Every structure is written in structure tokens, then in C-alpha cells.
């Protein structure tokens, strides 16, 4: 059996509605509006993941606070974008750390006017006065 995670579509609409404490028709409406789009079986039946259930509960919470469906859609869109950007930052931080580890002598960096990072020799100064210098002390 394949590994299941929070994104695995496993719950039929009746179970998902019960877990989200909503009516199944509400889930169908949210699917039509694109707020929560469940996976589909070959026969076209909806299958919800735990991530979908969490999102349905968030929609219910926002709705109870008076946020419109359009507002909820926008909040969810921004939250998803935020998650993607945070993941990208983590990837870039890992790549930078890997590069620093593979080049143990390069400990001082400067940012160029275009935003590129360039390494400097220890004790060297950046060519431009407005460059930002990042320093990583030796352990």
C-alpha cells in the first residue's frame, strides 16, 4: 500500500463533511467555488484529504468571524502563497549553507547592487560603499 500523508485523498464526502462539521452540500458548494477542491476517483466521486479537512475547518472559522466567501478565498490564496514563499526561503537557506560548508575559506560575502552575493577574502572590503556585508564568524 502506498504511503499516506495529509494530502492523500481518502475521505468520501459524507465522512469529510462529518469531520469538518459541515453539511455535504456545503462541501459541494466550496468545490464549485474552488475554495477546497478535493481529489476525484476514476468514477468522479470526491475524495478529501486531511489537508482538505483542515482547510474546511479554517473556512468555517473565518466565516463565523464574518469574512465573506470572496474574502476567505483571498485569505486562503495568500496563505498558500506565504507557504510557498517560506518553503522557497528554506530551500535558498539550505543551498547557501551547503555552499558555505563546501567552501570553508569563504566566510565573508557582499551583496552587489543587483542583489547577487559575492564572496570576499577575509579582511577585504567591498568595491562599492553601499554594499551590504554579511559575516559568518568562525566556530
Automatic annotation (TrEMBL):
Cell wall biogenesis/degradation as UniProt keyword: no
InterPro entries linked to this entry: DNA-bd_dom_put_sf (IPR009061), MerR-type_HTH_dom (IPR000551), MerR_fam (IPR047057)
Keyword vocabulary terms for this entry: DNA-binding
Protein name: Helix-turn-helix transcriptional regulator
PROSITE patterns on file: HTH_MERR_2
Keyword Ribosomal protein listed: no
TM spans (from-to): none
Any single Pfam family the record assigns to this protein: MerR_1
Residues in HTH merR-type domain copies: 10-78
Amino acid at each position: 500500500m502506498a504511503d499516506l500523508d495529509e494530502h492523500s485523498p481518502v475521505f468520501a464526502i459524507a465522512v469529510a463533511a462529518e469531520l469538518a462539521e459541515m453539511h455535504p452540500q456545503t462541501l459541494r458548494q466550496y468545490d464549485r467555488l474552488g475554495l477546497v477542491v478535493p481529489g476525484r476517483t476514476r468514477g468522479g466521486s470526491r475524495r478529501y484529504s486531511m489537508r482538505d479537512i483542515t482547510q474546511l475547518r479554517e473556512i468555517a472559522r473565518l466565516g463565523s468571524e464574518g469574512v465573506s466567501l470572496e474574502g476567505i478565498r483571498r485569505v486562503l490564496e495568500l496563505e498558500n502563497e506565504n507557504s510557498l514563499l517560506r518553503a522557497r526561503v528554506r530551500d535558498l537557506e539550505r543551498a547557501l549553507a551547503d555552499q558555505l560548508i563546501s567552501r570553508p575559506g569563504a566566510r565573508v560575502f557582499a551583496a552587489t547592487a543587483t542583489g547577487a552575493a559575492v564572496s570576499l577574502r577575509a579582511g577585504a572590503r567591498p568595491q562599492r560603499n553601499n554594499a551590504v556585508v554579511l559575516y559568518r564568524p568562525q566556530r
